[in-house]
Amino acid sequence: MTIKFGDGKNRYHLSDEDAIKLTSGRDFWATPAIGGIKSIRMSDGPHGLRYQALASDHLGINEAVEATAFPTASASASSFDPTLLTQMGAGIAHEARKMNVDVVLGPGTNIKRNPLGGRSFEYFSEDPFLAGTLAAAWIQGLQGEGVGTSLKHFAGKSQETDRLRSDSLIDATALHELYLEAFRIAVTAAQPETVMTAYNKVNGTYMTDHDYLLNTVLRGQWGFKGMVVTDWGALNDKVKSLNAGTDLEMPSSGNLFDSQAKKSFSR
């Protein structure tokens, strides 16, 4: 089967194999270029660009290009100033464009729940209205300058301990009024280019496989129009993730799961 899509100016024709390849990264930071579709280069944020021009890694061990270090989300949230966050986003976007980065991985918008969470400084606030409003402003600042964003880590990410296996058990009221509200505000107000799934499970289902949160809530109720990408190494099951609405597995797995996806796709 050949997949055809595009607009009036650009028409793309992809085989099943090529379409499946587009659902996995080419390397650590970029997507593949296939059938006239350009590669997308991503780099860490959100408090300044972490761009590695040579050898890439997840932990920042290898050398990165010099870039401006902006205040962390926990610090910038203390300003209660969306205009300031928009300016910060625009400043990061200018540096990203100079380095040919298409998407900056941020902002971090989870609600802070665990005082021992080692990445709580990456998140704005315990208050969903403040977190969502500032996240939307940061997104608008970057995307207003032509650089995409990746709203993260969706959703229910409350700890770093055992993060690949942890399960956030949240009742429906708390889920929607607290844990999802900041994401809802950011998506509906600013429409980020991408949303990044968290490592953890929510109520027994890994976020990469979570049909309810990705399709029913994110795309259906909130009208998200962009791409859903896994956190780096967060993929649980390739076929389940595609069926649940996850578009891109990062980083590259060397197309390890393409055959599984093709078998499912061909049924």
- Nearest-angstrom radius of gyration? 18 Å
| CATH-defined topology | TIM Barrel
Q: Name the shape in a single word.
A: globular
- Structural class of the secondary elements? alpha/beta
Strand segment tally: 10
Tally of domains: 1
- The CATH homologous superfamily is termed Glycoside hydrolase, family 3, N-terminal domain
Beta-strand content estimate: 5-15%
Unreliable residue runs: none
Q: Strand arrangement, largest sheet?
A: 3-4-5-7-10
- End-to-end Cα distance, whole Å, is 12 Å
The CATH class is: Alpha Beta
pLDDT averaged residue by residue? 92
User: H/E order of the elements?
Assistant: EEHEHHEHEEHHEEEHEHH
CATH architecture assignment: Alpha-Beta Barrel
Q: Helix share of residues? A: 25-40%
Q: Determine the number of helices (DSSP H or I, runs of at least 4 residues).
A: 9
For the sheet with most strands, the description reads: 5 strands, parallel
